Every structure is written in C-alpha cells, then in structure tokens.
Amino acid sequence: MKHNQSLRIVAQRLVLLVAGVCILSLANAQTTPLSLKEALQQALKNKSEAIKARLDEENGQYKIDQARSLALPQVNATSSLTYNPILQLSAIPGELAGTPGKTLMVAFGQKWNSNTSVSLSQTLFDQSVFTGLKAAKTTKQYYELVRGLTDEQVIENVATQYYQVLVQRQKLVVVDSNIATTTRVKNVIEGQYKNGLAKKIDLDRSTVNLSNLEAQRQQLINTVQLQENTLKFYMGIPIETPITIPASALDSIQPKLAMMDNTPDVKKLSDYQVLKKQEELLVLQKEATKAGYYPSLSLSGNYGYQGISNSFPTNKAANWFDYASVGLNLKIPIFNGFSTRSKVRQADVDIRKLQADIRNTELSLSLTYQNARTQLGNSIITLNNQKVNVALAAEVYTNTQNNYAQGLAPLTDMLDAENSLTTAQNNFTSALLDYRLAEIQLIKAQGNLKSLLN
Predict the structure, then answer these.
(1) Which of 144, 201, 204, 412 is deepest in the core (most CB within 10 A)?
(2) DSSP string for residues in 318-374
C-alpha cells in the first residue's frame, strides 16, 4: 500500500515537472523578440511563393540541359523476336518452276526471326535547335529575375504587416496606460463620493469612461490577434506559433528626409527587367518560328544483327547475318500553306503588345516613385504635428487634473482632456504607421526593399 502511494507521489511530481518545463518553454517562446530582419528571413525561407520561385530558378537549368540534348547524338537500341506460325503465301508464275500456265503459291521467309539493332542520329544543322538553346538560357535568367521580384513582394507584405502589428500593440499600450490612470481617478472620486465631496454623476461618468476604455482594449486585443495571424501567414509559419514584436522597433522610427533624394533608374527595377526579359523570350520565340524557313541537315547511322530459322533461333539453328547503313538527311521546306508566315506575324504582334506594356510600366514606376516621395513628405509633416499635439494634450491633461483636484475645474473638463490625450496618442501612433508604410513604398519604388534584410 505504501509502495503504491510512493509511486503515486513520484508520478504526480513527474507530471508537475513536465508541465513546468512546457510552461517555461512556452513562456520563453512567447517572450523571444522577433525583429523585422528575422521575420523577413523566415518569410523568404518558408513562404510558398518564395519557395516556388527558387524551384523555378532551379528548373531553368534543367530546361537548358533539355535544349542542349537536342544538339547531342541520339542513340537508341531495339531488339525483337518474332514467331510466324503461318507464313504468308505469295503467287508466282508456273513458268519459273517448269509448269507453264499455272500459278504457284509459295511461302517465303522463316517462322522465327530475331533482330537487334542500334541507331544513331546527329543534328548537323537545325536553326530551331540553336535558337531553343538560346531561349533556354534566357528562360533561366528570366526565372532569376522573377525570384528577385517575388522576394521583394514577400518582403513588402511582411514589412507592412509587421508594422501593422506593432502599431496595434502600441495602441494597446496606450489604452492600458489610460485605463490605469482612469482607474486611479475613479478610485479618488469614489472615495470623495463616500465622504460627500463628490457627486454621484461624477462617479458614474468616470465609470462609463473606464468601461469604454476596457471595451476599446478588448477590440484592440482582437485586432492584434488578427494582425498577428496575418503576419504569420505572410511569414509562412504555423498560425499557432507565438511571436513577440519588441516595442523598441516603433521607438526606432526616425523620419529620414535624405532618402527622398535617391531618384531611381526605373530600367534597373525588377518589374521593368522582368518585362524586358520576357521581350527577349518573345523575340527568340519569333526566331524559332522563322527557323521553319531554313533547311535542316542530320546524319544517321544504323547497325543490326539478324537471325532467321524455322526453329527457335540459336547460334547453331539459325542463319545469322549483320547489316549497316549510314545516311545524310537534308530537309528543305518549300511550301506549307503560309503557316510559318502566319506564326511569325503572330509572334511579332505579341512582341509589340509587350513593348506597350513595358512603356506603360516605365511610366507607372515613375508615377509610383513620385507618389511615394510625396506621401513620405506628407507623412513626416503629419508625424511632427501629431508629436506636438501629444505634448500639448499631455500638458493640458496634467493641468486640468491638478485643477480638478483643487476644485477649480469640473469633472467634464478632466474627462475631455483625458479623451483628447488618448486621441492625440492614437493619432501619433497612426502617424508613425503611415510614415513607415510610406517609407516602405518609397524604398520599394527605389528598388531597395532587400536593404530591410540588413
């Protein structure tokens, strides 16, 4: 009995130990800060779009190998064994056998036929093969550019969502601070009301204000959770993974006017270069189609070994012989009903359509940069104004609170001052977010999104 109790105690302690370790691990996971650089690195490693872009880039080399194979010798070996239980009869004139006027039915061939051969073909000249090899190399370069563009899109999404979460968390900090302050004021008023120094309406107003702040806090908690889940999705990590974003990341935001002077060369941006590489591919596709006008020349060779007999072919029972052939094949296209001409003209139309897209993209990238530059300038102005407003609102709130404590201001003024301070703080936080989003857009327009990884 005592032995069972001892085992039960040991088991309980073991369960508590394991639970403690799990809780400690979870706590450590939750308190591990996630920097923007780490978030971007995880996204580029885990996000499906980035993974697929890297696989497409890898596949580009395989396409080069496939195109190169068409210019290499093609060697094939075949082997067959045929049994003819009934040989086909052929009619021959009787004169050949000394029986004029009769038709004789004679079976030709042997019942067993064995054949093994090796064939070789080598392209000597085929314009479509050479053009296909150039196209394969260009395709690999295209996938490299697409991977870079995809990485930039992933970085933009993660960075934008990262600061969305950061700002919502900062708003939650502001609300918690206001709840703490309002709770202290409410406790003071409640004490004054009990002592007959305050009216019940003052206590009710303070209670309502506190209730509104708590409701606002709950809404922010829900918003933070939704924003964090979206961030985890953009990072390509499980939604249940706990993350913590350090508040210092928001404090480190400092407006930078110098970056507005870095005018980009739109022809070096990923969006533009991807389209130019597509244009190269379409030109090569047109050249491959025009290759239908050119003749093609190839070398072929064949060697075989054959055995025939009326019994199962073996080395002794069959008649064995070999054969070989070498050929030079020339194909000259003469007329195909203008099919090649139509395909070439279609390819030319595709090129002109893409060139129109390239011109439009060039204008769009220039517009994006100018708008991002203007938006960043406006965001800096708004941010500085909101910073001043927060300082003024805090000063007004402090003075109003002192006046209320001395009986020189009604509770309404203090509540208004408190609401004004909360609004100013939230506006400043929103201005920080707007500035950071405008900064990200300007960095993107300048083609420097990967600098966020540094």
Answers:
(1) 144
(2) SEEEEEEEEEEEEE----STTHHHHHHHHHHHHHHHHHHHHHHHHHHHHHHHHHHHH
